[in-house]
Write a structure and sequence with these properties.
Elements lengths: L1 E8 L3 H12 L4 E5 L14 E2 L8 H20 L8 E5 L2 H14 L7 E4 L17 E5 L3 E2 L2 H16 L2 E4 L3 E5 L2 E4 L2 E11 L1 H7 L1 H7 L2 E10 L11 E3 L16 H11 L1 H5 L5 E4 L5 E4 L3 E2 L9 H14 L7 E11 L5 E7 L2 E6 L4 H17 L1
Parallel strand pairs: 1-2, 1-11, 2-8, 4-13, 11-19
Antiparallel strand pairs: 3-7, 4-6, 5-6, 9-10, 10-11, 12-15, 12-16, 12-17, 13-14, 14-15, 18-19
Helix pairs in contact: 1-4, 1-10, 2-4, 2-10, 5-6
Length: 376
């Protein structure tokens, strides 16, 4: 029977982050995933390290710590990390008020926010519809990686550099007394860390149900590669993003903006839409997303949501090619009012998941804390 110091269930960003910290601490590590490749939340996103979106304090500190790990480990693994920056575009006076309030408070917390006049928006991003904009807010604190390839690159580096063993396409069916019952036979581990809400729910359904964790379903799209070398450059977001990001939570005008949006844009708010546009390495533009929670999530894609997303995108951007070539659903664990969840459902077993959809932004910091606690 194979034996390891640590078994990790889940080869997404959170599982790999735990593997990095454990291997660097000298532990023998095995990673299990029931899929042949990582194909969950870690690749169905924008590849965004959203330091810009964090509330000052513990959130911002965690995001900055994770960024430092990405810069370190990512460089060793050959992962390209681009400082894309982020441009919020305000199209109403209320949106602009929130953006200006955020900028006014940024200096006290070491954040980087710069108000942008309407006539200067084009200096920060190409393809903007500035005729409908009143101004914006720029931050350099957003980083882009290729979410579709980064997990594979990180896993390969862990295997070659640190001797981590990967059991891909190998479902873990149960864990008892330090032994994992897997599709490829029994494996013994001193400790086990379960990363990813779906794996937790399969292995310890009662404890998962008692935790209150549910799921959030996202709807996203991607355009064809843009022609003629078109470069969007930063992440571009609109006013619907402001109520969703904790960086704006303390802005005095935010409650009024939220109330106005609920009245003026009820379908967008009901479907949890906030527009993020991000350009990928192949020139395509990823657009999203919507948010439906738990039992409220529809069983399939909603045409209305696609329409709302595309309408919001076209109000912000004049893309050369708006042909949609990919449409997909994403899922992540969700627990209102919490960023992460760490539980101990059985002796020697720790279940860890991000419950706010920001595993890319916080995963390495959370994993560092968990591994530090496990090894004392």
């Amino acid at each position: 029977m194979q034996q390891y110091d640590l078994a990790i269930v889940g080869a997404g960003v959170l599982g790999l982050a735990h593997a990095v910290h454990a291997a660097q601490s000298g532990l023998s590590v095995a990673v299990f995933d029931r899929s042949g490749v990582a194909d969950g939340a870690s690749v169905r996103n924008f590849g965004m390290l959203a330091i810009v979106a964090q509330r000052p304090g513990d959130e911002l500190d965690s995001a900055r710590r994770t960024l430092a790990h990405w810069q370190n480990f990512g460089a060793e693994a050959g992962i390209t990390l681009r400082q894309a920056g982020c441009l919020f575009v305000g199209r109403t006076e209320q949106e602009l008020a929130v953006l200006h309030e955020c900028a006014a408070n940024a200096g006290r917390h070491g954040q980087s926010f710069v108000p942008v006049a309407r006539e200067d928006l084009g200096h920060y991003a190409n393809g903007l519809r500035t005729d409908a904009a009143l101004g914006g807010l720029w931050s350099k604190d957003a980083w882009k990686l290729d979410q579709r390839s980064a997990m594979a690159q990180l896993a390969q580096w862990l295997e070659l550099r640190h001797g981590v063993t990967f059991y891909m396409g190998c479902e873990v069916r149960g864990i008892e007394a330090g032994v994992l019952d897997t599709a490829k036979g029994a494996v013994r581990a001193g400790r086990t860390v379960i990363c990813g809400g779906s794996e937790f729910s399969r292995l310890f359904p009662d404890q998962f149900a008692a935790s209150g964790v549910t799921t959030c379903q996202l709807q996203m799209l991607r355009t064809a590669p843009q022609p003629d070398g078109f470069q969007l450059s930063p992440f571009v977001l609109g006013g619907l993003s402001l109520p969703r990001y904790s960086a704006f939570a303390d802005c005095p005008s935010l409650p009024d903006l939220r109330a106005t949006l609920e009245q003026s844009r009820p379908r967008e708010m009901i479907n949890g839409i906030h527009l993020i546009a991000a350009q990928e390495d192949d020139g395509s533009i990823t657009l999203g997303d919507s948010h439906h929670y738990g039992a409220d999530a529809p069983p399939e894609r909603l045409a209305e949501v696609d329409t709302l997303l595309l309408n919001e995108a076209s109000a912000l951007l004049a893309l050369p090619d708006v042909t949609i070539t990919q449409r997909w659903l994403g899922h992540y664990a969700h627990l209102a009012g919490k960023a992460s969840l760490v539980l101990h459902p059985a002796q020697g077993v720790t279940a860890v998941t991000m419950v706010n959809g920001q595993g890319m932004t916080h995963g390495f910091a959370l994993a560092e804390d968990v591994i530090s606690e496990l090894i004392g």
